Amino acid sequence: DDLGKLKGKEINDSARKITENGLSSCGTTITPPNPIVISTRAPIGHIGISKISSCTNQGCKTIIPNQSQANTSFLYYQLYTLKDILQSLGQGSTFIELSSQKLKDFVTPYPRTEEQQSISNYLDQKTQQLDNLIEKEKKSIDHLSEYRSALISEAVTGKIDRKSVV
């Protein structure tokens, strides 16, 4: 649920929390910050980088990249682009799920770590620019919507002389 609503790539908080009793009774473990979290039950492929200590439920898997081979941010972008392939690997009759084994067997090529970092930095910069443009356009739309409402209100209440408006 949190992953599906994620804007951007980082998970900085969660609506769901676990108690000590819950943690000890369910067999999950707390991972330190910076693993990749991916949904593995329908919908498969929602993804984020957890910037907080966290644990996942049965609908998600946590990937802790080997830092000598894979840059976490690069792997995030790579898995993000391969979402359709991951979804196609899901199986099940009641609900579609990507098994732990299929996820482990999913192999992707990696460029050198320096190149991964360069690609990740480029994508971070470009996606931030796009996010800024999207936010600016959303504000413009909000302003235009407010103007539209005010215009309708003024026209209906007679505050605007329709004859002078052509």
Report on this model:
The protein has 166 residues and is of the alpha+beta class. The protein has five helices and four strands, in the order E-H-E-E-E-H-H-H-H. The protein has a four-stranded mixed beta sheet, with helices on one face. Strand 2 (36-39) and strand 3 (47-50) form a beta hairpin. The longest helix is centred in the last third of the chain and has 44 residues, at 113-156.
Q: Biggest β-sheet, characterized? A: 4 strands, mixed
| Shape descriptor | elongated
- Rg to the nearest angstrom? 23 Å
Order of helices and strands: EHEEEHHHH
Helix-residue proportion: 40-55%
Structural class: alpha+beta
Estimate the strand proportion: 5-15%
Poorly predicted ranges (pLDDT <50, ≥5 residues)? none
- Strand arrangement, largest sheet? 1-3-2-4
Q: Count of helices?
A: 5
How many strand units? 4
CA distance, first residue to last residue: 50 Å
Mean pLDDT: 89
Layout of strands and helices, then pairs:
Blueprint: E1 10-11, H1 20-26, E2 36-39, E3 47-50, E4 60-63, H2 72-81, H3 83-88, H4 100-105, H5 113-156
Parallel strand pairs: 1-3
Antiparallel strand pairs: 2-3, 2-4
Helix pairs in contact: 2-5
Offer a few descriptive terms:
single chain; alpha+beta
In short:
By secondary structure, this protein is of the alpha+beta class. The chain has 5 helices and 4 strands, in the order E-H-E-E-E-H-H-H-H. The chain has helices spanning 20-26, 72-81, 83-88, 100-105, 113-156; strands at 10-11, 36-39, 47-50, 60-63.
